[in-house]
Amino acid sequence: MASEVLTGKTAIITGSGQGIGSEFARSFAEAGAQVVVADLNEANAKNVATELCDGGGVALGVGVDVTDEGAVQSMLEAAVGEFGRIDVLVNGAAVFSSLIMRPFEEIDSAEWRTVMDVNVTGAFLCCQAVAPVMRRQQAGRIINISSATVLGGRPNYLHYVTSKAALVGMTRSLARELGSSGVTVNAIMPGSVETGIPRDSARPEAVEKTIASQSIPRRITSADICGSAVFLASDASRMITGQTVVVDGGTEFV
Ligand SMILES: NC(=O)c1ccc[n+]([C@@H]2O[C@H](COP(=O)([O-])OP(=O)(O)OC[C@H]3O[C@@H](n4cnc5c(N)ncnc54)[C@H](O)[C@@H]3O)[C@@H](O)[C@H]2O)c1
């Protein structure tokens, strides 16, 4: 792929204050995009944006709670105000690394609802916000970050896995609503990724087991996921919609 395949494009990446999202932001900036780094943690979002600008990129850091319609609208207005258009939305914001794994009987309804609210409703609200802009442009890319946990099932994470499965249905169905407006909607399912952020699901024994199940038996890094996101954001993927790209090193579920 040419090195600046996203030149002239504006991308909103939610959840890009840390982890995989921040690596998406770096790779999108490297590919020439203007990046809106959006995160609940505003300081992190601004730090990532500053890093990108210091490196010669173009970026805007904004604080947003994706469950709050007003905040999502403000994010959109800030992005359009700064860059004039929205070409790409990456729905990466999620309750993930802060989750404690527990049997489903022990997940209280408040925690269940929070996970659904951020991981599913948040993505829905962001799609609703960008759709009018993308329809006007007759072009756009929406990329939902699902998870390969949906394929194998993962115990003690029922709210999380369920929320990520919902994004696959959302992707498939929204693709059918937006296709005639030139907007593609796709999902990425990362396998277990080393992000540098500690989390309950990445204890050493679990990581070892995961690596052993992969056809390419090494730890997946955030950078390993970026190529698929840049591709789905680029013109090269223009006839691909409603699809889910699995980036898990070829995991065998037995
Ligand atoms: N790391 C993995 O192994 C892995 C695997 C499969 C899928 N994923 C998915 O990839 C994405 C990134 O994963 P990660 O490991 O970097 O996660 P992470 O938990 O480190 O980062 C999530 C980001 O989302 C932000 N966020 C949380 N609630 C928000 C809200 N209400 N509004 C806006 N931002 C909010 C957080 O502040 C954080 O910066 C997530 O969607 C996750 O589910 C991760």
TrEMBL record:
An annotated GO BP: fatty acid biosynthetic process
Pfam families tied to this protein: adh_short_C2
Keywords noted in UniProt: Oxidoreductase
Superkingdom classification of source: Bacteria
Gene3D superfamilies, alphabetized: NAD(P)-binding Rossmann-like Domain
GO molecular function annotation: oxidoreductase activity, acting on the CH-OH group of donors, NAD or NADP as acceptor; quinone binding
CDD domains: SDR_c
Statement: the UniProt record of this protein carries the keyword Oxidoreductase: yes
Residue span(s) of domain Ketoreductase: 9-201
Family: Belongs to the short-chain dehydrogenases/reductases (SDR) family.
NCBIfam families hit by this protein: PRK07231.1
Name of the protein in question: 3-oxoacyl-ACP reductase
